[in-house]
């Protein structure tokens, strides 16, 4: 009896997905009427991995690079004069002077004019959620 036998071994080994690929696949699951199982099968990934990525998007852990933190200019307020800066000159500033925050406070100025002050012991997850809400 001649026949062909196909051996199905399951999913292949560990693959590396770029953030853009993960976000694209998660976006597919958010279309109306789309089954998560079908999206997972189409991309040959486990459903549990897809659910993990969806949770990470909801929590703000997985997001596009343009939404990630970036360096912003920092301005020192109330700087004491140094040898390189004469006492009669003031530091250059672009924003109006505000009251100096107490020690341990961090002030974050968002592009839309909103300000957030947090202590040095702030929970990073909570701060991430607050900043995401304020950007909207």
Describe the protein's topology:
Elements: H1 19-29, H2 36-42, H3 47-59, E1 105-109, E2 115-119, H4 124-135
Helix pairs in contact: 1-3
Pfam family, one: HTH_Tnp_1
Keywords: Plasmid
GO biological process, one term: DNA transposition
What does this structure look like?
Keywords: Plasmid. The chain contains four helices and two strands, in the order αααββα. With 136 residues, it is mainly alpha-helical. The chain has two domains: 19-65; 69-84 and 100-136, no CATH class. The chain has a two-stranded antiparallel ribbon with strand order 1-2. The longest helix has 13 residues, at 47-59. The protein starts with 18 loop residues before the first helix and ends with a helix. Residues 89-94 have low confidence and may be disordered.
**Succession of helices and strands:** HHHEEH
Helix content: 25-40%
Strand content: 5-15%
**Number of helical segments with 4 or more residues:** 4
Q: Tell me the Rg in angstroms.
A: 25 Å
The total count of strands amounts to: 2
What's the structural domain tally?
2
Q: Average pLDDT value?
A: 76
Structural class designation: mainly alpha
Keywords: Plasmid
GO molecular function: sequence-specific DNA binding; transposase activity
Protein name: Transposase
InterPro entries: Transposase_8, Trp_repressor/repl_initiator, WH-like_DNA-bd_sf
């Amino acid at each position: 009896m001649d026949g062909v036998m196909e051996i199905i071994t399951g999913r292949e080994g560990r693959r590396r997905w770029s953030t853009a690929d993960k976000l694209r696949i998660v976006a597919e699951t958010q279309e109306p009427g789309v089954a998560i199982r079908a999206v997972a099968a189409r991309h040959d990934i486990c459903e549990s991995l897809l659910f993990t990525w969806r949770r990470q998007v909801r929590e703000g852990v997985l997001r596009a690079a343009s939404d990630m933190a970036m360096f912003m200019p920092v301005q020192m307020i109330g700087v004491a004069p140094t040898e390189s800066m004469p006492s009669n000159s003031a530091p250059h500033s672009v924003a109006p002077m505000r009251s100096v925050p107490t020690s341990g406070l961090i002030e974050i100025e968002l592009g839309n004019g909103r300000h957030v002050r947090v202590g040095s012991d702030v929970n990073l997850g909570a701060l991430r959620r607050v900043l995401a809400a304020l950007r909207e």
